[in-house]
Design a protein that fits this description.
With 140 residues, the protein is mainly α. It contains 5 helices and no strands. The chain has helices at residues 3-13, 18-26, 34-40, 54-69, 78-93.
Length: 140
């Protein structure tokens, strides 16, 4: 098992995102960008794959201890920290996408946008009509 495999399994088990891993590494003064970190998690046959060195994994594990347990001055309960990962993960991953308003308007194509105001729904004047086109046959 390679360092990359260990790193991937820890990320999945602890439900960590890339930005959280970068913050954990900064706890031990080890700086790495999200792009470089993404290259560590790629498959081995990918052209941008980077092998995870011992130094990176060692610093991540040391930072993880500080992240989960805290320091002597400010100890933490590791299970509480892991529960916050579970709460944050789904909600922060949802990114609001801008709504598509249609094709972009160019200077030559002006089309007025007539939107109906929020008018209360009117009751239909004529009720829906049921057509009886013959008798229903009883099922045997």
């Amino acid at each position: 098992m390679t360092n990359n495999d260990i790193f991937k399994k820890l990320r999945v088990a602890l439900q960590l995102r890339d930005d959280q891993i970068v913050e954990i590494l900064e706890l031990v003064d080890f700086r790495i960008s999200k792009g470089e970190l993404g290259n560590v998690f790629r498959s081995e046959d990918h052209p941008n794959y980077i092998e995870c060195g011992d130094q990176l994994l060692r610093n991540f594990l040391n930072g993880l201890v500080i992240h989960l347990r805290g320091t002597k001055e400010a100890p933490k309960n590791p299970m509480d920290v892991i529960k916050t990962h579970k709460k944050l993960a789904p909600s922060e991953n949802k990114v609001e996408k801008p709504k598509f308003d249609g094709p972009k308007k160019t200077a030559g194509s002006f089309k007025p946008n007539y939107k109906k105001k929020n008018e209360p729904k009117k009751e239909p004047i004529v009720e829906k009509v049921r057509y009886k086109n013959g008798k229903k046959k009883p099922k045997e």
